[in-house]
Amino acid sequence: KVVVVLNIGGVIETASWKAQPDAILCAWQAGQEGGNSVADVLSGKASPSGKLPMTFPVKFEDAASSDNFPIDMKANIDLVNKGEKKNEVKNVDYTRYEEDIYVGYRYFDSFGKQVSYPFGYGLSYTTFEYANPAVKQDDRLLTVTVEVKNTGKFAGKEVVQLYAAAPNSAKMNKPEKELKAFAKTRELKPGETAVVTLQVKAADLASYDEASASWVVDGGTYKLLIGASSRDIKAELSADVAALTQKTNNVLKLRESITTLKR
């Protein structure tokens, strides 16, 4: 059996080789206790229960930001040094931030991009079942509950994620869904069930509107998606939310217009 342990601080390419080992343990950079924690997981003393805080793309160029990354920087600098280009060369002297809010899973999921591992992904030595999802609305607070049962043979913890999808998200140029809350269960023994509660304020559903310099909650029916990752949705609920606008100072006004990514 071959297990690959990743001692990394960020995303690396995994798509070309991940099928070869029997398992992959992403330990990140755990510090002086990293050896003990890895040993506990590999030996079965502890069941892994972490979830990825970022998307692992198939290749670097799949990320929207790669369009504005100085991949061919040396060639551009050579041209500058030869006098064939003036100063202020894009992606050499400056870079435009053009992805807007489409960063990470909000880009990959909204634009239907294939990924190696999605945001929020993570396995353990056991399995979990989600049941009886429900939502209650009190004033401008949404409370979502769901039962999580350990259906495997080993004790373990699960991280439940709550995403929200705005009404007419594509038309309104908003992400397909956005993470709004998450919670980890206590350690559940085989066959044990826990009720997970997740809360979202209606104001947290707002998006920033640059034209009016306001935080805006679009009124309408929102989808509330309960998942084990951004691409493993276990249950879908809905809630009607009233419109809300909160004016701010216009401190984000651009000095010059740029072309940003839109759905």
- Alpha-beta content class: mainly beta
Instruction: Figure out the total of helices.
Output: 3
Radius of gyration: 22 Å
Total number of strands? 14
- First CA to last CA: what distance? 44 Å
- The parts where pLDDT drops under 50 for at least 5 residues are none
Mean pLDDT across every amino acid position: 92
Percent in helix: under 10%
Order of strands, widest sheet: 8-7-12-13
Secondary-structure element series: EEHEHHEEEEEEEEEEE
- What oligomeric state is this? single chain
Which outline best applies?
flat
- The percentage of residues in β strands lies in 25-35%
Let me know the largest β-sheet. Answer: 4 strands, antiparallel
Keywords:
single chain; mainly beta; 3-stranded antiparallel β-sheet; flat
Question: Overview of this structure, please?
Answer:
With 263 residues, the protein is mostly beta strands. The chain has helices at 34-43, 73-81, 105-110; strands at residues 3-6, 23-26, 56-57, 115-117, 128-138, 141-150, 159-165, 178-184, 193-201, 207-209, 214-217, 220-229, 232-241, 244-247. The strands form five sheets. The chain has a four-stranded antiparallel beta sheet with strand order 8-7-12-13, with no helix packed on it. A three-stranded antiparallel beta sheet has the order 5-6-9, with no helix packed on it. A three-stranded antiparallel beta sheet has the order 10-11-14, with no helix packed on it. The protein is flat. The mean pLDDT is 92.
